[in-house]
Amino acid sequence: MLNVAVLFGGRSGEHEVSLISAASIVRNLDAQRYRVLLIGIDKTGRWHLQPEALLRSVRNEGASLSIDTAEHGTPEHRTAEHGTAEQPSRLVLIQPGAGLRLAGTEETLPVDVVFPVLHGTFGEDGTIQGALEIAGLPYVGAGVPGSAIGMDKEIAKRVWQAAGLPVTPYMVLRRSDFDTLEDRALVDCRRVATERFGFPLFVKPARAGSSVGISCVESGDELFNAVRTAFRFDNKLLLEPAVPGQEIECSVVGNSVPTAYPPGEVIPSHRFYDYDAKYVDPDGARLEIPALLTAAESAEVQRIAAEAHRAVGADGMSRVDFLVHNTKRTIYINEINTIPGFTSISMFPRMCEAAGLAYPRLLDTLIELALNRYREEQELSFDYAALDD
Ligand SMILES: Nc1ncnc2c1ncn2[C@@H]1O[C@H](COP(=O)(O)OP(=O)(O)O)[C@@H](O)[C@H]1O
Ligand SMILES: [Mg+2]
Q: Are 323 and 245 in contact (CB under 8 A)?
């Protein structure tokens, strides 16, 4: 049996999505092969070991995941109710070089591999991955640089451009470029955006997700509000021309030699694939697998997706999203998600499944890839003094 710690919840705006993704993963992890430890991260960022009962109810009764924070107590704040032998602390701490342990105890949790099921900020952006590196634990998915590059839509595009891959045209706006939002810089930006891209155009935070803070702008007059909205979520924004056409997604699995599966397509019923279309409106989007592309186009999407995954260093898994122009048929990479949605109806597992990789086998593969990468990294030397010998 392999001990798998599933990390879920998290500090991001995608906390609730993570609960659903993680519940699906728990149900699909082969109970014959894995002993699952559930660690919920609350919205303040604390890690809580969840009771066994939650695991059973999620597995057997299809219950949803939640985070039980009631049982924790920090060593300084121990009372009769907290951290006693009868009711031990459930707060999980990182031990540098030695895994995870419960606060106030010397007990190291039995963890062979961690499966972070955390979307967005503080989960998909390299921060949790850094913590797991410090703990010395193998984990599923991209490492620190792959996660951080994948999260930043500007840096990812620069990396892809350097690799000769096609990306949606863009310009970057930084908060520091403006004294106030209404000053000359915004006027300049409006002129440049109008001349370069025309309308409609998209304004988006560089490092967010779930379409939060994104607007599709029809005229220069709307630009100010869109910029102000996006600056609520990040200090760096991207402006892009709206690409009229198809939204294509492609699942990629593997480390340095990844496999890209045949793409699927998202057909939003809204003006674009906004937050409501993703999570609120049950008819917000139709998902088509396979995508409505020619065989040659699908093959090209797969080729680019695998290259895009490699270029950012997205180990394990990623979903690479594309925009395909409806008349010119140009294929642009839109973005990469290094911890894609994992609910049973999410595109990532469904596209793998359509290609013959069933959800439980996909999880086996991801865990194996995590252990392989860890083993390879263990062989590296960090002891430069040894070079003198
Ligand atoms: N340049 C663009 N052209 C057309 N649609 C876009 C463009 N950029 C974003 N969109 C729309 O906005 C949605 C969210 O944008 P995206 O860049 O994928 O950010 P997120 O990380 O929030 O998913 C996309 O799924 C698509 O519907
Ligand atoms: Mg997206």
A: yes
Residues with CB under 6 A from ligand 1: 168, 202, 204, 208-211, 214, 240, 242-243, 247, 268, 272-273, 321, 323, 334-335
Q: Which residues of 229-252 are buried (b: 16+ CB within 10 A; e: fewer)?
A: bbbebbebbbbbbbbebbbbbbbb
Closest ligand to residue 171's CA = 1
Instruction: For residues 261-268, give the mean pLDDT.
Output: 97
Q: Do 216 and 122 lie in a common domain? A: no
CA dist., res. 294 & res. 188, Å (int) = 41
In a domain, 389, yes or no: no
Per-residue pLDDT band for 151 (boundaries 50, 70, 90) equals: very high
How much is the pTM?
A: 0.93
Is 61 exposed, middle or buried, given 0-12, 13-18 or 19+ CB atoms closer than 10 A?
A: exposed
Q: What is the pLDDT of residues 48-76, one digit of tens each?
A: 999 999 999 999 888 889 898 875 444 44
Q: Which residues does 357 contact at the CB level (< 8 Å), separation at least 6?
A: 253, 261, 365
Question: pLDDT tens digits, residue range 187-239?
Answer: 777 777 788 889 999 999 999 888 999 999 999 889 989 999 999 999 999 99
Q: By residue range, what is the domain housing residue 126?
A: 2-140
For residue 169, which ligand has an atom nearest its CA?
1
